[in-house]
Structure formats: C-alpha cells, structure tokens
Design brief:
- The chain is α/β, with parallel strands linked by helices.
- The protein folds into two domains: 2-148, Glucose Oxidase, domain 1 (3-Layer(bba) Sandwich); 151-349, Rossmann fold, CATH 3.40.50.880.
- The chain contains eight helices and 19 strands.
- Strands 10-12-11-13-14-19-18-17-15-16 form a ten-stranded mixed beta sheet, sandwiched between helices. Strands 2-1-9-3-4-6-8 form a seven-stranded mixed beta sheet.
C-alpha cells in the first residue's frame, strides 16, 4: 500500500492508503451506502456508474468474493471504492478471491483507512460532491460534472435478448437492470424480452412492460420517456423500479429533482400507504419524483419515512405503477417481493 488522498470539490481532503498497482487519478461523484453487507451486489449494480462509493460500514472484504452468483452484472461499475478497514484474509466457503484481487482484476481504484463516518457527515451537510482518488498530494483537481454523461446509454444493452419460455410476454426496458430483477420475473410464467433503453416496442404484442433501474439523471433518457408516454395510453400493465419510477413520472408530465445526498443502502424505511404497513427496503438513487406535479388520476403509494419523499406512484386504474426502491433486493430485505406478484396478477387479468 502507498499513501493516497480523496479530494472533494468543497476543498475537503481525506488521507488513506491505495494499492501499489493504482496509478491514475480517478474522478467521480462521491456517494455513501449504509448497508452492512452485500458489497458484491452493490459494486456490480449498474446504477452506480460514474460514482465513487463510500461504505459507512467500517469493514470490507471479510467474506471475500464469490464466482459471481451474487453479482448484479458481469463487472464492477463504480468509479472507485472508499472504506475504513480492508480485510484481505476472507473466511467464507464460496470465496474464490480477495476483495483487493477483485478490484485489481476490474481495474477499480480503492482508498482505505479513511474515516468514512466523517466523510458521510461531510456529504450529508454539503450534498453529493465530485471527488478524486489520487496518490499525488499536489494534484489540483479539475472537477467536471461526471453525471452530465448519459450513463444509461453506456450500461444499457446494445442487443435484444429473450429469456425464459413462459406463456406471458413481458418487455423489460433495460436502463442498467440488476440481474435479480430478471431472476424475480422469471419465477413467473413469463418470457422476458430484454431491450435497450431507446428500443421502440410500441408496435409489438406484449402482456406487460418492466422499466428497470439505472444510473444518472432520468431527464437524459428522452427517447425512453417518449416511447413510454405512448404506451401509458394502452391497457397493458407497466411496472417501474427505481429509475423506472422516475421515467414513468416524466412520461405522464410530472417532474423529478435531485436529492441532496440520495438514498443508498438496504435499511431504508418506507410505508405502503395502501396497506398502512412499513417495510425496510433496498435503495440506490439520486433523484426523486415531485409529487406536487403528479397529474389527475395518479397518486403516491409509498413514502420514505426518513424524509417523506415519494417512494412509489400508481395510476388509480391499477394498471401502471412504480416504486423508487428495489423489491428484488439483492442485497437487502425481500419484504416487498409481493409487488412482483401484483404485477403478474395484473398481467393475468389482461
């Protein structure tokens, strides 16, 4: 290890250590995640594209890295990793390599030995900040808005893929989908057509549409919103998750806005306003829906209990709905899996 630095756009500097193989200056939007486990699922979530991720839990690497059965894509998507303690002698039956070996294989930078609780306080006070991981103490950072990039375009698949062989056809608009969304859908009698974010499915025959999670500002997905707005006049059920919730809002003429520091972790409390029940949910997003802009016929179905932001919306007909959290979990609680069951039940009513 060698001395390294995390420099933030507000002038804050945190010292730590980085591995010898790490030589480049690595820029990104610095965000924090409050989960205690699940670093494999988290780092392979495409929604983290363009971001340097801080883990508030102090230890990383204690159970190593598996062959990929817990991954949410085939690679790490974060621009960098920040942690307090790196554990490089893992103990788990499924571990095939250490956390540090995994990062090196995917060429993802790390800085450890950082007071991540203090860093989290800085982000909570100032909001999300651009940052750089560097080994050069004299570096004068040249920050640019990395989230101005259309990250959805970078992580969305280039080709159409068909999965499963069920009776009912569902189109999944993949804006950077987690693999567990697909696993959950294929638990039902479904054939899944996985399409790019700008694919026009409006002339196709289908039984339902799934709008996936994904990175960045939903307003950059103008083509996705345009196609969706046409399909929201159909009589086929549409269900959105995370970015999918924001895209649905934009498609009906509502507005979205960027949160101060977002919601990331699998201990995020939400209330189901229809059931009057609270759930712990897995979340990862920077943007939210402005409920004051929802048009007639639409309602808020979930709220985040920490800040009362919108965590779910639905049309009063019951055909179209979306949630800001991740009912597929991975990692995190699976308490809201029933939302997939509701989606499939609407398909059956067809």
């Amino acid at each position: 290890m060698k001395k390294a630095y995390l420099k933030l756009a507000n002038g804050s500097i945190f010292e730590g250590l980085s591995p010898e193989w790490q030589t480049d200056d690595n820029y990104g939007e610095v965000v924090f995640n409050t989960g205690m486990t699940g670093y494999e699922e988290t780092l392979t979530d495409p929604s983290y594209s363009g971001q340097i991720l801080t883990f508030t839990f102090p230890i990383l690497g204690n159970y190593g890295v598996s062959k990929g059965n817990r991954w949410e894509s085939d690679k790490i998507h974060t621009k960098g990793v920040i942690c307090e303690t790196l554990y490089d002698d893992p103990h788990h039956y499924s571990s095939v390599e250490t956390f540090l070996q995994w990062l090196q294989k995917h060429n993802v930078p790390l800085i450890c030995g950082v007071d991540t609780r203090e860093l989290t306080k800085v982000i909570r006070e100032h909001g999300v900040l651009s940052g750089v991981i560097t080994t050069n103490p004299d570096l004068v950072p040249n920050f640019s808005d990395s989230m101005a990039i259309n990250w959805v375009e970078k992580v969305s698949p280039q080709k159409v893929e068909t999965l499963g062989n069920g009776k009912h056809k569902v189109i999944m608009v993949d804006c950077g989908a987690k693999e567990n969304i697909i696993r959950c859908l294929l638990d039902f009698d479904i054939t899944l057509k996985r399409v790019p974010f700008d694919y026009d499915y409006s002339e196709e025959d289908y039984d339902g549409v799934m709008l996936s999670n994904g990175p960045g500002d939903p307003k950059q997905c103008a083509r996705t919103v345009e196609i969706l707005s046409k399909e929201l006049k159909s009589d086929k059920p549409i269900f959105g998750i995370c970015l999918g919730s924001q895209l649905m809002a934009l498609a009906i003429g509502a507005n979205t806005y960027k949160l101060k520091f977002g919601h990331r972790g699998h201990n995020q409390p939400c209330i189901d306003l229809k059931r009057d029940r609270c759930y712990l949910t897995s979340q990862n997003h920077s943007y939210a829906v402005d409920d004051s802009t929802l048009p007639e016929g639409w309602e808020v179905t979930f709220r985040h209990l920490n800040d009362n932001t919108v965590a779910g919306v639905a049309h009063t007909s019951g055909m179209y709905s979306a949630v800001q959290f991740h009912p597929e979990a991975s990692s995190g609680p699976q308490d809201t899996f029933y939302l997939f069951e509701q989606f499939f039940a609407r398909i059956l009513k067809g």
